[in-house]
Amino acid sequence: MSSTELQIAVEAARAGANVISAYTDRSRAQSFELKGRHDLVTEADVASEKAIKSVISHAFPDDVMLAEESHGGAELTDERTWIIDPIDGTTNFAHGVPFYAVSIALWKNKQPEVGLVLGVVQDELFTAERGNGAFLNNKPIRVSETSEKSEALIGTGFPYRDLSVLNDYMKVFDVMMRETHGVRRPGSAAYDMAYVACGRYDGFYEYALAPWDVAAGGLIIREAGGVVTDWKGKENWLSGKRITAGNPHIHAYLQSVLQREVHPDLL
Ligand code: IPD
Ligand code: CA
Ligand code: CA
Questions:
Q1: I need a surface site. Which of 53, 87, 90, 104 has the fewest CB within 10 A?
Q2: Among 140, 171, 191, where does a domain finish?
Q3: Mean pLDDT over the full length of the chain
């Protein structure tokens, strides 16, 4: 039995997904504005966020919201906060590539309590509540058992706003290409993390992600038996802009590569 909070999160995500789908039907390529270098926002991002916030604020009028398109520089505090990415994978969406998701998490007592990632085109609903396991379309999921790096499929994202880490990133990439079964960069961090949770990928790492990219996916991975840390192996993965996730074996492998290849100042 899921909590009212999760039920509302599902309702809100479906409201957002309906809005996104209405835009998808209109045309393949979406018109967009650049927020910054390589950083775009479509009308659908803004409309999806509005629909999601409306459902949540109706149910929980006193809760704080940290949503990507309207955060205005706000940070997480001790208050109960909904962390919302109305479309994770906007670049894919704007180009008609069908891999993007709605991501919603509830932050409570300084940790994610509820997490939801909805793959919009695939209609894949990943959910978790702290202490209650993780689910894909209401069926329990677990991370993979792969322990050999040569058999591990790894997800990542390429930095594009802050390129200070690019050289070290390429060194890590070089190692991964040689040592693992392959590296994927599908373009939606939240959905990528859900892939780790259900065992499609064995591990994931990325630099410069925001709380709305990772809050839900991180909880879902943990509830599926996986490990999530920052690049120092510590707990600051949600706001720390560096994340490593995976089943316990492949998380440890990814950490060893990052520790070796990335300059200590950038860890
Ligand atoms: C982006 C996606 C992408 C990741 C970027 C994120 P957005 O989110 O998660 O995979 O590499 O860093 O910003 O902008 O599509 O919500
Ligand atoms: Ca995002
Ligand atoms: Ca987004």
A1: 53
A2: 140
A3: 93
- The CA dihedral of 37, 39, 40, 45, to the nearest 10 degrees, is -160
CA 104–ligand 3 middle distance (angstroms): 11
The answer on 131 and 59 residing in a single domain is: yes
Q: Are residues 97 and 155 in the same domain?
A: no
- Burial status of residue 29 (CB atoms within 10 A of its CB: 0-12, 13-18, 19 or more): exposed
Residue 174 is among the residues annotated as catalytic for this protein: no
Residues 15, 125 share a domain: yes
Rounded distance from Cα 170 to ligand 2 centre (Å): 22
CATH number, residue 22: 3.30.540.10
CA distance 108 to 140: 23
pLDDT of 39 reads 55
Domain carrying residue 72: 4-140
Whether 267 is in a domain gets the answer no
Mutate to test the pocket of ligand 1, among 20, 38, 88, 92 (most ligand atoms within 8 A of CB): 88
| pLDDT number for residue 28 | 47
Closest residue by Cα to residue 141 from 251, 228, 220, 203: 220
Q: Which two tokens stand for residue 167?
A: 């050289």
- 125 and 50: one domain? yes
Whole-prediction pTM value?
A: 0.95
The pLDDT tens digits of the residues spanning 129-146 come to 999 999 999 999 999 999
Q: Name the domain count of the chain.
A: 2
